[in-house]
Amino acid sequence: MTKLLQKSATLCVVLALAGAACSAPQGPADPPDDTFVIGLSSEFDNLSPVLGFSPDGGSLIFDGLMSRAPDLTIKPALAAEPPTVSEDGTTVTFTLKEGLKFHDGKPLTSKDVEYTYEALLDPGNNSTIRSDYSAIKDVAAPDARTVVFGLRYPYAPFVQRTTLGIVPAGTMEKTRPVGSGPYRFVSWTPGDKIVLEANKEYWGGAPAISRLVLAFAPDDNVRATRVRAGEFDATVLPPKAAAGLRGRQDMTVYDVPSADYRAIVFPMTRPVTGDLAVRRAFGLALDRQAMVDTILAGAGVPAYGPISPDTGWHNPEVTGGTDPEAAGRLLDEAGWTMGRDGIREKDGKDAEFTLMYPAGDSLRKELALAAASDAKRIGLRVEPIGLDWDAIEARLDRDAAVMGFGSPYDPDYVNYELFHSDFKGQGFFNPGRYDNPEADRLLEQGRAAGEQAERERIYADFQKVVRDDEVYSYLVFLKHVYVIRGRYEGIVPGVDGHEHATGGLFAGIHTWKPVA
After folding, report:
1. Is 183 helix (H, G, I), strand (E, B) or coil?
2. 3-class DSSP state for residue 307?
């Protein structure tokens, strides 16, 4: 995924997950028996829901008005019951549970909810998720337990968006947060770990695991080694790195389905990758099934678009296959002629480009190498290069990159920022600077439409537009592979989004109970 989404939800399915850290952070020595250590692939930018931390309901520190069950259904959290919605769909009213408190003992009231959303919408706070809540016109707190949202238009996914964590009014603490969730913040050692302890007065019941340590270890092999050595109680690994841990008596490996994809994004304004024929030919050259079989060891499926075929929003017409001969004909017709060195050229320009991937991500590295090998067979020279996320972000306007995104929720999620021209060039939002008025129109219509059937038609058309433009060459949808030491009751796999670290399977860790 992108550093931005990785780091601001870092973890999107849970807490929120992200993208950088030291190569071998040190976890606590001899942690007590009631401490559970999770090895994460990336460190958070901040711990503020207002600034984008874990907006999708996976945070263990914060609660939203609503939360998600593993099957993706929405249920009340801080809200006493589902909201009431006006007939025209523009007024949504929530009633809070009685007796809610923050970790510091102060009451949580509707004023805190009002403040959280108003702070998020304040342009001065520069929240990375502000556009996701642009349907909100105003927020009111007529009494201590009532919150009323006024919407600019009937926004179908609005109730799903209220999984956003609530913060105390007047605070936007980034590094020492106070929430109301099942775990309270203890400490953050940058580049190393975050420590959380159970909220024994949690309205949903005190967690059985008393202490959590979120240890940052971006290198896949380091995490595999540390979980094998007993330094980590759980982590998420690429399928190959987890292979040697399967079948061990002291561990359980969970293969969790996801809408998380890996894809190659192209800079749309460069001479080679800006040529639609090159992009389409590249996509036809890719052997996605071989990537699934070898690189993912079967833990995934080929990808041809941004919406998983395992969701009801997927357009079955958006599919594809491997056809190097057709790819070659496309390039021939577009004037890219084969040179004596096996690389095509046009108007004195070689058909070549750089393909970036995060250096510590072994899975993306292998995908980049496989894609480069496939491309060479049709006369494209692709040079893979491993960089840190800061270097990748600085070069997105001129080099291709292996990116990761994907959401199992409403198709408005993620896609609006990735493909709408208003976001082109804004870091990891629309990194290829895609600009198509038809895609913009469909995204805007999908966001505002009220009827389910109409929205399904709109997003089906949207998927065809971005497929035809080959904005990305989609590679694979992943299964997230979790490795957990010991045995626990209450582990319920669901469907992951892109982020997973302390999210996804870990989102319900406050309900786990050790099996004696």
Report:
1. strand
2. coil
